[in-house]
Amino acid sequence: MPRPPKFRRVAFLPPFLVYKPQGVPLEGMEVINLTVEEMEALRLKDLEGLDQEDCANHMGISRPTFQRLLVGARAKVAEALTEGKALRIGGGNFMLVTQHRCERCYEEWEASLGEACPRCGAPPAGRGRCRRRRGL
Prior knowledge:
This protein is an alpha/beta fold. 30% of the residues lie in helices and 19% in strands.
């Protein structure tokens, strides 16, 4: 029995899910599917300019796995651009993570939605009381 797929950490969701040549209707056009984690690999490496080890750490995967995602993503984008195909972004095995900042102790951390502050245990977005400042 194969091992269940590991979720990749993604900090960005694109504002649009389909990119296509201008003036051509989407109906009947060939569509290439780019997963959300492939889009994140492109963003981290090509837009943010991080090295592969840092990119892999951000996504919570190994460097060879990151390299495979990046190569596949670049090939899909190149095919869509050179052959006039539509590019649809969606799907994959990912977990959305965001930057949080505790309103009580000002700790900053990257976490899944809903995780409490790792320093003082306060709920996200300042709901509730900070355990660290109870005596103040």
